[in-house]
Amino acid sequence: MQARDQSLSPDWIDQVFSARAVSKGGVVRRSVLWVENEIGRARFIQEVDARGFHLLECGGQFIVVCNNGPIRKLV
pTM, whole model, 2 decimals? Predict the structure, then answer.
């Protein structure tokens, strides 16, 4: 899929990272296809990394853990 022009400053990035869950160190989830259509995978990864968050991909979803603490998979 073709991503939109990555030079744009999309409103959705501001919306995603201003969510209440972000400020509380919670979790934000977005569809991989939606992200790829809106801005592109690379740009999304860049935005998550710039904030020091963790990014997981599972079942067609991106899961952003909005803190920089260690991640431990239990099962």
Answer: 0.79
